[in-house]
Amino acid sequence: MSDAFHSLQENTHWPDTKDVQAWDYTLGGRGRELVDNVIYEVNAGLLLEIGCFLCASTRRWLTKHPKLKVIGVDPWDDDLIRQVGRYIGRPNLTRKYPERATQMKMLADITNNKPFPTAMANVVEFRDRFIPFRGWSPDALRAIKDAGIEPDVIYIDCDKKPDELEVSHELWPNARITGDDWHWSRTKGYPMRQVVYAFAEKHGFSVEAEGATWVLHP
Ligand SMILES: C[S@@+](CC[C@H](N)C(=O)[O-])C[C@H]1O[C@@H](n2cnc3c(N)ncnc32)[C@H](O)[C@@H]1O
Questions:
Q1: Which residue, of 66, 76, 155, 197, is most buried by count of CB atoms within 10 Å of its CB?
Q2: 132-187 pLDDT per residue, tens
Q3: Cβ-Cβ contacts under 8 Å for 43 (sequence gap 6 or more)
Q4: For residue 152, how far is its CA from the centre of ligand 1 (angstroms)?
């Protein structure tokens, strides 16, 4: 397993982040302690994160769990620039950076430096324990499985669709599955709750949730 991690690491391109400004801004919400608890419970060596954005959540796992390795899947494409543009002046970004000028600087930095180097600048000090895997789930998950990777914990924070749960469980039936978006969105009928409850019922898991975070228990 650790061989598979190292060989994937050796084949992974890291951008030059020397002059790149990191922006440690997370889209996730409360309740990540639930994931910490699962990491402790199974003594996890490897967490697979699907949907990393600027790697603020990734940074959190790596900081809080000094022995944990993380593989993060995300295309880190230019859509993230448009996404950040839409956050300007919105409550979540304004809570983190109250000054509009700071928000505009963030957008300008990500536009100029591009999303992938910006995200990697946020986790560069963890390069020995983090592998960025650029691509789209679920195809990327199959490629990661083909590389011999066996995560202990999977954290899903991307599309609010059933695919990530189903494919993760098919590929790694013993991995503990967790994720974000439990709180999103009341007006849309909390789509992630519906996905998680349906999956839990189908496969015989129980669900624990707090804030934005959910975890499945066997
Ligand atoms: C909500 S953000 C992730 C937030 C991050 N985990 C945090 O807490 O800061 C969602 C991310 O998922 C990525 N994404 C969307 N669809 C994806 C897919 N099918 N596979 C991988 N990543 C995807 C987007 O590029 C975006 O960066």
A1: 155
A2: 999 999 999 999 999 999 999 999 999 888 999 999 999 999 999 999 999 999 99
A3: 152
A4: 20
For 198, residues 6+ apart whose C-beta sits below 8 A from its C-beta are 162
Q: What is the CB < 6 Å shell around ligand 1?
A: 26-28, 50-53, 56-57, 73-75, 80, 136-137, 157-159
Q: What is the pTM of this model?
A: 0.98
In this predicted model, what pLDDT tens digit does every residue of 84-103 receive, in sequence order?
999 999 999 999 999 999 99
Map out the domains of the chain as residue ranges.
Answer: 2-78+114-171
